[in-house]
Amino acid sequence: MFNYFKQTLANVAGTQEPEYGPSAIQPVGQRDGDPAFTEVKKEHLKWMTISSASVETQTFYFQTDAGHLGFVQVIYSNVVGLRVTCQFNCKIFYPNNEKPTLWSSDPVDNYGFDENQYCFYADGVSVELSEDGTFYTIKSATNENSLVNLKVTKAAPGFMGGKDGTSNYGTDPKNPWGWMRHAFWPRCKVEGSIITKDGEINCKGRGFYSFALQGMKPHHAAARWNFVNFQSPTYSASIMEFTTPPSYGSTAVRAGGIAVDDKLLLAGTSGMEVKHTQAQQDAETDWPEPTGISCHWEGKTADGKDVSARLSGPLHPRLDRVDVMAEVPGFVKTLVASAVGTKPYIYQFSQKMTIEVKIGEEVKHEEGWLFLEASFVC
Question: Which residues form the Svf1-like N-terminal domain (predicted)?
Answer without folding.
Answer: 55-214
